[in-house]
Amino acid sequence: MSKFFVTVNHVPILTELHLVGVQVDTLIKRELPSAQQIYLWDNDYYIVSLEDWGKVFQDVLLNMPKYTAEKYDCDNFSMLTSARVSERYKLNTCGIAIGQSPFGEHAYNVFIAMVDDRVQCYILESQNGLVYDAKEDSGYLPRLIIMG
Predict the structure, then answer these.
(1) Hey, what's the torsion of the CAs at 110, 114, 120, 121, to 10 degrees?
(2) pTM of the predicted model, to two decimals?
(3) Please, are residues 113 and 50 in contact by the beta-carbon 8 Å criterion?
């Protein structure tokens, strides 16, 4: 008798909210004034609650490749995180950020979430999964943000 194994991925049900590009641009400029360059590659953007982002990141940060200096480092983590979010959840509001961090020049992620009827920016350190409110003094000051 042969056995068949089928992988079933249980994707959490997410409630999406819609923003247009000018809203995203205004929000980023207000909450992350260090961002000198903001590239928005879409006209329409989709966000979820901070709680739902937690579910998304729990999935996409699982089984990341091992850190390897100058081969697979911060920029690779940031790009892969953004790509996985886009691929698996069709969310385009987890962007790539480059700028200052507590560790010096660094790449990380910026994402937009709904919290208590307010839309806010957050920083995701994709190498360890820590999240920071963009308005708190965490030492993350993105200079360049690419979203889309």
Answers:
(1) 0
(2) 0.89
(3) yes
Q: Where are the alpha helices (DSSP H) in the chain?
A: 21-31, 50-60, 74-89
Q: Which helix (H) or strand (E) holds 15?
A: none
Are 138 and 123 within 8 A, CB to CB? yes
Angle between helices 50-60 and 74-89 (to 10 degrees): 110
Q: With contact defined as beta carbons under 8 Å apart, do 57 and 129 qualify?
A: yes
pLDDT digits (tens, 9 = 90+) for 103-122: 899 999 999 999 999 999 99
The pair of structure tokens assigned to 143 is: 């200079």
Pairing relation of β-strands 104-115 and 44-49? Answer: parallel
Q: What confidence tens digit (pLDDT) does each residue in 41-97 have?
A: 999 999 999 999 999 999 999 988 887 787 778 999 999 999 999 999 999 999 999
Hunting for tokens 């910026």 — which residue is that?
110
